[in-house]
């Protein structure tokens, strides 16, 4: 599934193509997509395909096409502080992007059938938290993954503001999926070969919208135990953050505000003018031809049809070349201002590292 947009050379170019094709339509979704590099969720030997608009599957590991994830993120209408349930959470790629929008006071849970995929997702999440500068640019709602069949979620689990299912849902399971949703919530799932958005407008009232035709592998039916009973999936409890964690969130938020104020002060109105990229004009050059005749050298200029013999044009070309700008220097690597500010504070090192979530440089 996919192939709706051109491949990109890198993550940003892929996002540019998705925007141009109107799959990404809002700034929040664009920021989340740019902040999480899709290639980081591929196995090393398959990374050359990461920026193509194609689904990828290797064993139990699976990623949907970028155009599908774009439509899903837009349809979910995510906001900070909401609760999100990802059924068939896979690599955690989608859950990580969602977490950047939900912020520190959201809820971000995933259910995955395969234990090896759960382990893979945890490794990718750990890599993102330790190494990505995006972690410091956003307030992140870290995903929690549990193993189990998403059709066996315990009936006493909490309902969610947003629910996504990453496998094909048959009509017989539609009501079950709806039961996971709060009033006012949104459910997005592939239902009978159509990516479908269902909004719960009341206790028994629903609005349904078909988004686009899709092809997903169907949900795997539960396997009952020897006793004939199903294994109920217990979702993580809605934990209350500790006072220490709340203090860390507040301190990081205050430092980010200081950084923004300093940026505005240093740039006047806060808007930095970006110099435009100048393209050198390609010119046809006259050919200097040397002809060898009986061991004697005869030099001649052979003009092409596009040549102009006027001296004024030659002088103008020379002047333009003299005015040609020097080659642009490579852009400096991005600076993690939050990290620099924290490390400069007159605090004990253990407290600095705690504020940085013990992340690598």
TrEMBL record:
Transmembrane segments: none annotated. Residues 302-335 are annotated as: Disordered. One of its GO terms (cellular component) is cytoplasm. Keywords: Acetylation, Cytoplasm, Methyltransferase, Transferase. Residues 309-319 have a biased composition (Acidic residues). PANTHER family: PROTEIN-L-ISOASPARTATE O-METHYLTRANSFERASE, PROTEIN-L-ISOASPARTATE O-METHYLTRANSFERASE DOMAIN-CONTAINING PROTEIN 2. This is Protein-l-isoaspartate o-methyltransferase. The lineage of its organism: Eukaryota, Metazoa, Chordata, Craniata, Vertebrata.
